[in-house]
Design brief:
- The structure holds 2 protein chains of 2 kinds.
- By secondary structure, chain A is an alpha/beta fold.
- Chain A has a domain of about 70 residues.
- Chain A contains 9 helices and 12 strands.
- In chain A, helix 3 packs across helix 4, helix 3 packs parallel to helix 5 and helix 5 packs parallel to helix 6.
- The termini of chain B are far apart.
- Helix content of chain B is about 80%, strand content about 0%.
- In chain B, helix 5 packs antiparallel against helix 6, helix 6 runs antiparallel to helix 7 and helix 8 runs antiparallel to helix 9.
- By secondary structure, chain B is an all-alpha fold.
- Chain B contains 15 helices and no strands.
- Classes of the chains: A alpha/beta, B mainly alpha.
- Chains A and B meet through helix 2, strand 8 and helix 3 of A and helix 12 and helix 13 of B.
Chain lengths: ~250, ~350
């Protein structure tokens, strides 16, 4: 469904993402693990065009999208309208939620469909209330984000992303900013979503969660995919890649 | 003369001689009133008030002497000298003597009312002045308020667009706005007002004082507010723009729906501050022929020399600034309902 080919992103000399390719099929759940600064977040943002790539390809349903070449043969993002259309089909959940603080929970969820898709308020409100119910926040629909707990905020952020009816959801360390006792509720929400067949790409440091949800686990370091395999392979004792073994020994 | 006809010629001659003598004596004692007035006036011109007063007082009342004009003039001069000595009793006595003979004499009447004012306690006079000029000052205040409100409505809107242009990716747009802000923040408002009102007519654009004042204030305050608003926009967490884009918003949709609304609350204190300054800055437009509170107070002060007029104007300014301070505080609280504090 979504494919990236040989993608490179450099910050000056440092290659944040270094010739990475990844193919995500419909309904697949992929978890990316790896140490901080290994390029996981950058990779996620590139799929959403929030970061531009220096070279490589992004394919949507087999079609190359989002970039064209300028006179100097450099990759340039397409016009904003085109990019926005792709983005609206890709849901993203951030580590620090980035909810809109001046809007109530309900308004946060409704904002995308109303402003971007120009759907009727009535229709959107019904969908939004459904979503709030799904993430168990219906009683908080009129609360502002500042009055929600971390777990509630992240569940609201998931609902906001889902309101656009995306074909894929990107999770960027969704539980890293949460108190430990709030992690579970967010994972449960994500698991529910997974069981509904949502395609997901998840960056996380929670190995237990990765093992539970992933169809495939990717270990990323220094901008490269070091290891790629089934969770049972990665988290097994037979794991022979020393870099991965070393990392897992530290986090588990 | 009748007596003289009944006595003998010798007697008559003697009596005539004696009478002449006596009359001469009297004449020597009672000098010519014109001469006395002239003498007094001479001393007055030399600045010797005491000597002048002595002569003016010598001029007799018109009963003994038919020369009313001389009497009135010398009494009046004496009254003035007494007044300058702050001897209000004698001064008013002089005036009253004139009025006893000539009840309609305007000069004496004015002098008397002048004496009366001088005898009123100063604070009472100030209070009377304040009451008398209150309507004028209030009318002028409404002009000040009008200038303030128009500028308050126009400059944040213009300032917002300049701020957005300033941070836009278009180099030329950004530098035009930078230049505008540079000019209007970097030169005195007074100079800008002078340029618009006195300078632009030379370039073929003549504005009435009101338009010139509005133009000057709005241009100046838009520049200030643009920088404040730009700071407000840039203070919003970059994650907000990212999140807005992630759900598919364009840059302008994100600005309009997500970024700019979040600046309102945090912009209230600095913008409120600017508007307080604005209320006081409107006093500057008095220099381009606008009659507003400062100008009116100045004009009245020049007539009355009553410092209470200035205090009165100060109080009106204080009422206006206090009102807006409280209003902005309330607005800030109301805009911050979404914050958990």
């Amino acid at each position: 469904m979504i494919e990236i080919q040989d993608v490179v992103k450099r910050y000056r000399e440092l290659a944040a993402v270094d010739h990475v390719s990844l193919k995500i099929d419909k309904g697949e759940k992929i978890v990316i693990i790896g140490p901080s600064g290994s390029g996981k977040t950058t990779l996620l943002k590139m799929i959403n065009f929030l970061e531009t790539m220096d070279s490589g390809k992004i394919l949507l349903q087999g079609k190359e999208v989002g970039y064209h070449k300028d006179r100097n043969n450099r990759l340039v993002l397409d016009k904003q309208e085109v990019i926005c259309r792709f983005r609206s089909e890709i849901g993203m959940v951030f580590q620090h939620f980035h909810l809109f603080p001046h809007m109530t929970a309900l308004q946060n969820v409704m904002e995308g469909p109303i402003t971007v898709k120009k759907e009727s308020r009535k229709k959107v409100q019904a969908i939004a209330l459904d979503l709030l119910k799904k993430v168990d926040l219906l009683d908080k629909k009129d609360a502002y984000p500042a009055f929600l707990s971390g777990g509630q905020k992240q569940r609201l952020a998931i609902a906001r992303a889902l309101a656009m009816r995306p074909m894929i959801m990107l999770f960027d360390e969704p539980t890293s900013a949460l108190d430990p006792e709030l992690v579970g509720e967010v994972f449960n929400t994500i698991k529910d979503l997974a069981s509904e067949g949502m395609t997901m790409l998840i960056v996380t440091h929670q190995m237990g969660f990765a093992r539970e949800i992933a169809d495939r686990v990717i270990f990323m370091d220094n901008g490269k995919f070091i290891f790629e395999g089934l969770p049972s392979d990665v988290f097994s004792d037979k794991m022979d890649n020393p870099r991965v073994k070393n990392f897992l020994a530290k986090v588990l | 003369m009748e007596i003289k006809s009944h006595v003998s010629v010798r007697c008559c001659t003697l009596t005539l001689f004696l009478l002449l003598l006596v009359c001469n004596g009297i004449n020597a004692q009672q000098a010519d009133p014109y001469e006395t007035l002239a003498e007094g006036t001479r001393y007055l011109q030399e600045g010797d008030l005491d000597a002048a007063l002595e002569f003016f007082q010598k001029v007799p009342a018109p009963g003994e002497n038919e020369e009313g004009g001389v009497f009135v003039r010398s009494r009046m001069e004496a009254a003035k000298i007494y007044f300058s000595y702050q001897d209000f009793n004698n001064s008013s006595r002089m005036c009253k003597e004139i009025l006893a003979v000539l009840p309609d004499n305007l000069e004496a009447k004015n002098m008397l009312s002048h004496i009366e004012t001088s005898l009123t306690p100063r604070w009472l006079r100030f209070l009377t002045d304040m009451k008398k000029y209150m309507p004028t000052l209030l009318k002028a205040s409404s002009m000040t308020l009008l200038l303030v409100i128009i500028t308050m409505l126009a400059s944040p809107v213009i300032g917002l667009f300049i701020a957005l242009a300033r941070i836009s990716r278009s180099r030329s747009l950004s530098s035009i706005c930078w230049f505008y802000i540079w000019i209007f923040r970097g030169t005195p408002l007074l100079l800008q007002l002078f340029f618009i009102y006195y300078g632009l007519p030379q370039l073929g654009l003549t504005l009435n004082p009101f338009s010139a004042a509005i133009l000057g204030l709005v241009l100046n305050y838009s520049a200030y507010l643009a920088e404040i608003i730009r700071g407000g926009i840039e203070s919003i967490d970059s994650g907000q723009m990212e999140a807005a884009k992630a759900i598919g918003m364009t840059y302008w949709q994100a600005m309009r729906r997500v970024i700019v609304p979040q600046t309102y609350k945090r912009l209230m204190p600095p913008i409120g501050n600017e508007f307080i300054a604005l209320i006081k800055d409107t006093a500057l437009v008095s220099t381009i022929a606008m009659v507003e509170l400062m100008r009116a107070a100045d004009q009245i002060f020049n007539v009355t020399f009553n410092i209470f007029i200035l205090i009165q104007a100060a109080i009106i300014y204080l009422i206006m600034t206090s009102f807006f301070t409280i209003a902005f505080r309330r607005l800030e609280d109301r805009l911050g309902v979404y914050e958990n504090r």
